[in-house]
């Protein structure tokens, strides 16, 4: 890699390089036309792991971080295949119930607060997302997000919002099945925030303000 070139973390979802369409065509043109000026690391979010590139990638696309939101339960397998399996075992061993309780639960409560009131100060929301990212660089995503304490915190927050402070405009009170599905969605949709960000990245760019843009906050 030419050290003079800036390195861009290029974040996509449901498009380049695994799907065709207008966004993918634009992204391919962008990468191709900037071969001599910019290097790209692609962070490509897809719906499942069984995809193949639809484009011949230019030489300045130096890496692809593929994150399938569904069809996997161990997202780390798709982040960096150069990380030895032993490092993943160590990560899991560090992720104890006490660690989750002391370090992650406070962050998760702040996160749920932001979900319930998305018009809070943007710096607070950014700090929470960045806190998630830092935590998952050292501790295991699956063990943390499957911890029953998180489900209880999520349930209690909904109970407070829909029952203790009842507002007819909120609609029907969530049932146990709704809460369970909500936690399942959070588990899958937050996977991008567990991805390591390459140290050589100078700038990040997302093709849309959705799940791939979470990594930009960490970057």
Characterise this structure.
With 219 residues, this protein is of the alpha/beta class. It has two domains: 1-79 and 195-219, Rossmann fold; 84-194. The protein is built from eight helices and four strands. Strand 1, helix 1 and strand 2 (39-46) form a beta-alpha-beta unit. The longest helix is centred in the middle third of the chain and has 20 residues, at 97-116. The two termini are 20 Å apart.
Number of strands: 4
How much helical structure, as a percent, in the residues? 40-55%
Total count of domains: 2
Mean pLDDT, nearest integer? 88
Question: Rounded to an integer, what's the Rg over CA atoms?
Answer: 19 Å
How many helices does DSSP assign?
8
Q: In which order are the strands of the major sheet placed?
A: 3-2-1-4
Biggest sheet record: 4 strands, parallel
Oligomer: single chain
Sequence stretches where pLDDT stays below 50 over 5 or more residues: none
* Structural classification: alpha/beta
Strand content: 5-15%
Give short descriptive properties of this protein.
single chain, 219 residues, alpha/beta, Rossmann fold, 2 domains, 4-stranded parallel sheet, 4 strands
């Amino acid at each position: 890699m030419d050290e003079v070139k800036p390195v861009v973390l290029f974040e996509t979802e449901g498009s380049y390089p695994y799907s065709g369409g207008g966004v993918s065509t634009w992204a391919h043109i962008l990468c191709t036309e900037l071969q001599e000026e910019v290097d790209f690391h692609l962070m490509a979010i897809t719906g499942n792991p069984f995809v193949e590139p639809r484009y011949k990638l230019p030489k300045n696309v130096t890496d692809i971080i593929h994150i399938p939101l569904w069809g996997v339960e161990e997202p780390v397998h798709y982040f960096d295949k150069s990380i030895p399996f032993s490092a993943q075992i160590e990560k899991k061993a560090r992720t104890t119930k006490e660690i989750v309780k002391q370090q992650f639960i406070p962050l998760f409560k702040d996160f749920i607060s932001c979900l319930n009131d998305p018009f809070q100060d943007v710096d607070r929301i950014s700090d929470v997302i960045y806190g998630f990212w830092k935590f998952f660089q050292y501790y295991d995503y699956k063990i943390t997000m499957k911890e029953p304490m998180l489900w209880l915190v999520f349930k209690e927050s909904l109970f407070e919002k829909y029952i203790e402070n009842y507002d007819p405009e909120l609609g029907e009170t969530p049932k146990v099945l709704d809460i369970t599905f909500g936690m399942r969605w959070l588990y899958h949709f937050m996977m991008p925030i567990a991805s390591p960000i390459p140290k050589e990245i100078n700038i990040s760019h997302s093709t849309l303000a959705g799940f791939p843009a979470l990594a930009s906050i960490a970057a």
